[in-house]
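tool=predict chain=A
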Amino acid sequence: MKRSFDNMAGSYARLESLTFGKSLQHARGHALSVFDANQPQKALLLGDGDGRFACRALQDNPLLQIDSIDISASMIHCAKTRIGTLDPELLRRYNPINANALNYEYPLSKYDVVVTQFFLDCFRSDQANQLIAKLETTIKLNGEFAYADFSIPKKRTWKFAGRFLVAILYHCFRLTTDIRANRLPSLEWPESLELETKAEFLKGLLTCEIRTKR
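tool=predict ok
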């Protein structure tokens, strides 16, 4: 079997629920605050997977347009099916892009919002930081970057458990997908992306941030 995120497309939501319950969905929900239901906005999602976040964002924000980049054609199919099942009209505002995010040519100052959720952890530190730098250029001035991912808890009582769980997750993903990373990246945020809010879930195992481009 070829290693690819296509292998997880049909079962990802179920596996996530069995492992973490609703915690990852709660973490994703933190980013919904960046949208304004009364204003037209253009958003870029990266690695949205089976489309659960896009589905909610489109449903709640009738003026929102989404471009969604994913390397997995099967994940894109799942996302389109999910959105179309909820409301076929939502697909008019959803543009899936089957591409490698590292090599994609991002237009300058196009998006009001960029969202990456449980995505940057798929890359080595150098790759993740190069990608962040590219994404910074595609966000409009005063636009927002919403980020959610795994992290290592800072409290000593949870730190060891967090490291162990993250190591297990990387091992499982490397068995089924083609990611090369084997540890969480050390992220370097440009000074132009100012931290606005930060939230943690599962004792710090999940971290969510919203940053504004100044």
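The beta strands are 41-46, 64-70, 94-98, 111-117, 139-150, 193-201, 206-213. The mean pLDDT is 91.
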